[in-house]
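Quick one, probably user error.
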């Protein structure tokens, strides 16, 4: 399955729920998963430990991301980016998917999911996840 935004969270941001999702916060987390995780962008709404990676150097719930920033790199374009995140001295097997969620919000609202397209392993090494030059997410809001 491709990467994407979790629709229920976006809907709660835009509807009368007015979920206070601040993408600039430095306490959103990324959790790592095996290929057994099914990312349902329409139905999933909260962080879950089901199919989450276990291993040396990784703590359940994942790791906070830093360097988060919303920017306007061009006319009608919104970009969301962050610093790279790493798990040094880790021994992990079968890392295939990532979920980013709002750890500070009640309900641990899912923000976006990333399918790595293959599985990655470390053996007392560093798993480094570097965002693309265009950010974690780029939205062109112009037709």
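Nope, works fine. Designed sequence:
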């Amino acid at each position: 399955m491709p990467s994407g935004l979790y629709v229920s969270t976006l809907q709660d941001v835009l509807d009368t729920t007015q979920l206070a999702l601040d993408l600039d916060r430095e306490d959103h987390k990324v959790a790592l998963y095996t290929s057994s995780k099914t990312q349902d962008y329409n139905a999933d709404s909260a962080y879950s430990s089901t199919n989450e990676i276990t291993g040396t150097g990784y703590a359940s719930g994942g790791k906070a991301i830093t360097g988060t920033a919303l920017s306007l790199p061009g006319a009608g374009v919104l970009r969301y980016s962050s610093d790279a995140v790493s798990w040094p001295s880790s021994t992990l097997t079968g890392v295939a998917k990532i979920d980013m969620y709002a750890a500070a919000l009640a309900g641990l609202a899912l923000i976006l999911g990333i399918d790595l397209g293959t599985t990655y392993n470390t053996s007392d090494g560093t798993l480094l996840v570097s965002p693309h030059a265009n950010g974690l997410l780029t939205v062109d809001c112009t037709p």
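The chain is about 5% helix and 45% strand.
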